[in-house]
Amino acid sequence: MIHIVFNEPDAAVLGKAMEMDESLLGPIQIVRDDYAVGPLTAIFTPEGIEARKNWWKMVLEGGELDGMVEDGLVNDEQLVLELKELLTNENAEEVWIWAAQNKHDVCGYFWLVSQLSAFQGRIQILYLNNLPFINEKGNIFYPDWLSQIPAKEFIKAKKLARPVTTSEFEVDADEWNKICAEGSMVRLLDGGKKILHKEVDYYDAELSKYIGPESQKGSKIIHAMLNKSKETAGDAFLLWRLKELATTDKYEVIGELKGMKDFEVKKRTAVEAAE
User: Fold this and answer.
1) Is the dihedral of CA 225, 230, 236, 242 positive or negative?
2) Which of 70, 89, 228, 240 has the most neighbouring CB atoms within 10 Å?
């Protein structure tokens, strides 16, 4: 079996589960792009793929992940090609898709499963949607991310694996096409697999709550939002939005708007703004 997850920490904890249960053994592959943000128009065409790459180049420019698009680490299209080739050549092979109840995993699932309908019966889904697990302290909790689940609990979760149905292949592919056609730049999860669409500046108002009258490093502002806000995005996307906010008249910037530790931001007073 080949395991698919959507985050690096998920792969780490799944790897630990394999050490406890050899029946789970198999290569772990990661869908690395974050399909909850950014353009999706014609996403399965060379033009759409290139447009998305160019958008990510713009978002990541000057930040800690600048150059990531060019280094080839994120190449989800190649991953799908390799999966299809393996499934075509190895008739007994299966793909297990692990997803939790968050917009990142669900959008990644839609993107992936829309391309695997030819292998019906061999694509297993483990969608841990509103399911209780036991944490390290022995308390019941409902995880938002796979990486929050202790490795030993993955052994229990494997019993939830089931084939993606014919109906799901059709309905989910249609839903993904609608999501792509919507043209939004930010996508949220509204329970189950329902996606809400928002504008590119959706997180700006929340991000601005953590910018005060005293100068703060960009990293501190972003980490405060990630730790305290209910709805968040990846730190690279939030860094880009913080840079966009910082260039407006409401804020003063100290340093260069590059990496999140390269600059500080503070809110201007009414007098400063007027001047």
Assistant:
1) negative
2) 240
